[in-house]
Amino acid sequence: MIPWNRGHKHECKNLKPVADRELPKAVLGCMEILVRRRHGLIDDQTWQLLCHLDSHVDDFKNNGNYGGIELMAMGTSQFSATQEIFNTNFVAAMYARILSNSMTLMTPTFDPLGIVIDALLCHLNHSCDPNTFIVMDGPQMQLRALKDIKEDEELLISYVDPTMPYARRQTELQERWFFECRCTKCRQGPTLQEDEWAIKPGALTHQYQKIADEEIQRNEQENLASFVGGSLDERRVAALQAKAFAMYEAEQRQTEPTEAIRIIEDAITLCIEPNLWPAHRQPLPALGDDLVINMLAVGNYEGAWFECAKRHRYVIPKLYPQMHHPIRVVQTWQMAMLAQYLASAGAELAPGADMALIAAMLINTISVTSRMSHGPDSAFAKSVQQKFSEVEAELLGKFGSKDAMNVAIQRQVKLLAEMGK
Q: Which of 170, 165, 195 is nearest to 182 (CA)?
């Protein structure tokens, strides 16, 4: 990171006239790049890498969005006071590069903070079956391996959520990055677990056939992102899927946790009641994730725990089969911290369940996997290791030895699985 007196003082000066406005993150990012280049804070090699990123200007012109980009570029140029150095066409192209190549800036536990554009990492190609995952640790970005990588094998990340169905991945990639994915996963089409249904489309109950027909009539244009097939049964399933995703997107825009929970529960009912969705098919897992977050927000800790237990048993192993997958590690950490809180509150969630031991069991797992998911020297892995040392010391004082402690923990494994039913 560039120290404040080398970078941010210039940005603050330029942002002062617009401090009372809420500017788009891409505008702020573009301003930062232009201002830093103007003041010599971006070296020539990094600058060339940035300029080499595809701007997709022709694609934006073809889809009718370039006019908005030009308008944003005019404002960016004015606010950054770089008009004499960069003409409007150049600024528009740089703004388009940010729209096409920026990544979401996240905490180590994947809470979004903003956007980031890295001159090197943004050149990584996409696969829906990636072999690497980007993890952020403070100002540092790390590329962590998800699987064994052979010498000279290309490093690949996923631009989209690879747990989404085939048509939804393809639609998002086409709309934002303007390409059809032909990765090893996509070459198999909608035949993998992301596109599995719990029942055949033709087995829908009459009630849900009627609901689906009403959705088809209500929406003149069928949602390409939810495409399943051309038969009436497949169109019905696609209509229900489009409705479920629309409800998911609506709850994500909701700022009131109670209302978000209501929408989520209605959407989950839509998925579960017709017996159509397996537990691992999106958007059901994403709805479950958001239900946990909103339940925690309203203080329903026991409800959040049982949702975590179901996710731990049925969803995580399917979506993230690698034990060290960063998302699997973070979700398990969230569950461990909730278990520890419930233990401190004296909650009795199932006969014989010891939440302190369950928390210790989960933290023990994360103390190993976080070193691979985030790196042994990362702040996250170190905090997990510190927590494990504290928990282990406390339990050793209670049980007297590691052997006795481990025997007691193993008794909780089955109880944890039972709570996930």
A: 170
Residue with tokens 């505008």: 27
Can you list the domains of the chain with their CATH numbers?
Answer: 8-101 (no CATH), 104-110+118-177 (2.170.270.10), 197-300 (no CATH), 320-421 (no CATH)
Distance of CA 115 to the CA centre of its chain: 13
**Do 226 and 264 touch, CB atoms closer than 8 A?**
no
- Report the SS3 class of residue 26: helix
Cβ neighbourhood burial of 13 (10 Å; 0-12, 13-18, 19+):
exposed
CA angle 67, 73, 78 (to 5 degrees): 135
Whole-model pTM above 0.85? yes
pLDDT in tens, 181-205: 999 999 999 999 999 999 999 999 9
Cβ-based neighbour number of residue 141 at 10 Å: 15
Kindly indicate the confidence band of residue 6, based on its pLDDT and cuts at 50, 70 and 90: very low
Element (DSSP H or E) covering residue 39: none
Residue 142 CA to its chain's centroid (Å): 16
- Partners of 347 in the beta sheet? none
CA nearest 69: which of 42, 45, 101, 92? Answer: 92
Distance between CA atoms of 400 and 67, rounded to whole angstroms?
70
